[in-house]
Amino acid sequence: MDSALPGPAYSATARTTPTRHADRARYDEDTVHAVLDAEFVCHLGFVAEGAPVVLPTLYARVDRRLYLHGSTGSRPMRTVDGRRVCVTVTITDGIVLARAALHHSVNYRSVVVHGTAHRVTDPAERALALDAVVDQVVRGRSADCRPAGAKEHAMTAVLRVELDEVSAKVRTGDVADDPEDVELPHWAGVIPVRRTLGTPVPDAALPSGTPLPGYLAHLA
Amino acid sequence: MDSALPGPAYSATARTTPTRHADRARYDEDTVHAVLDAEFVCHLGFVAEGAPVVLPTLYARVDRRLYLHGSTGSRPMRTVDGRRVCVTVTITDGIVLARAALHHSVNYRSVVVHGTAHRVTDPAERALALDAVVDQVVRGRSADCRPAGAKEHAMTAVLRVELDEVSAKVRTGDVADDPEDVELPHWAGVIPVRRTLGTPVPDAALPSGTPLPGYLAHLA
Description:
The structure is a homodimer.
Chain A: E1 25-26, H1 29-37, E2 41-48, E3 51-62, E4 65-71, H2 75-79, E5 84-97, E6 105-119, H3 123-137, H4 150-155, E7 156-162, E8 165-171, E9 189-197, E10 201-202
Antiparallel strand pairs in A: 1-8, 2-3, 2-5, 3-4, 4-7, 5-6, 5-9, 6-7, 6-8
Pfam families (chains A, B): Pyridox_ox_2
InterPro entries (chains A, B): Pyridox_Oxase-rel (IPR024747), Split_barrel_FMN-bd (IPR012349)
Protein name (chains A, B): Flavin-nucleotide-binding protein
């Protein structure tokens, strides 16, 4: 069947080939992009004065690129232009309680991106990236807010990281106890974990009775 | 009032002093430990061949220490003993939709730990750390599973990172639009975000009718 043909994929490298649990590694675009599209906070890693630094950062995926943004005064934005970065996105899906302590695990989906960060200076690309970061958090929102003005643009740094050396790692499914442990008298199973969005709380200055916009209506 | 006396706190360093949003930084043990105790997946950063690597990893906090564990064959466990690491824990609490694109934000709590990782070899400390990692995920679980045997211990590396150079960063509250934007016709407010645990799904091999243990009863 055509639908079973493999789609485009990222190439594995030494760094993106796990030293264990190789069965959990994924390189196909569908899996990698789905993980990246399901979150909006990444962990940006860089090296400062020889030591690693990991900071939570908002991001967006556009095709085979990531955009990150932050204040021009913030540490990562001042540090990483032209430098190696590692961008990691992790989603926790479940807690796996095995009978054996060592088989306790977590169901998760993660993507690790190795690359180089470049400051984006082209106005059109900056505008696209800033819209994408807003839409990554809430789809449709960028068309319903005031775009950045010139002064705000000057305060905002945008970084681009090409998706090239990329891998996903996915654990799904059940407890994996050793056969000789299955009779042990401990409860075993999986606790589902998910992120939920609550009812939107309007800003105090919003005129009372202002309806939720369509892109938030499902949260009412 | 005695209750208003400041409790113990971590000392700020150049690296843990933010270059902006200094009002969001926290160093008191209560805040730092509360964030660390509310999660079980951290992002471990280290430097490999000059480049940063960030990997999601299970951890536990015990007093002023973090313990991380993993297979002795995994990349971080083989790489980081005696080396500088950065361990970051982030919890997303809300999506802040401002009228201005640039004031979109996220309510979050994060902790960044700068330190050196050390392999734990003392059997008593290893046992304590492995129990702590299980209990970090589900309180009370370590007493209700089979502890690791000698062969499993040999397959498992435990790392200790002292909590010393540590800071939390916390954003809470409302939209922070500029006064001149408040009349703009865009919905503004905060969408609460939280993690929820679902009903535990028993392992297929568990005898039917096995009750949930007490430490999971609140999830029934």
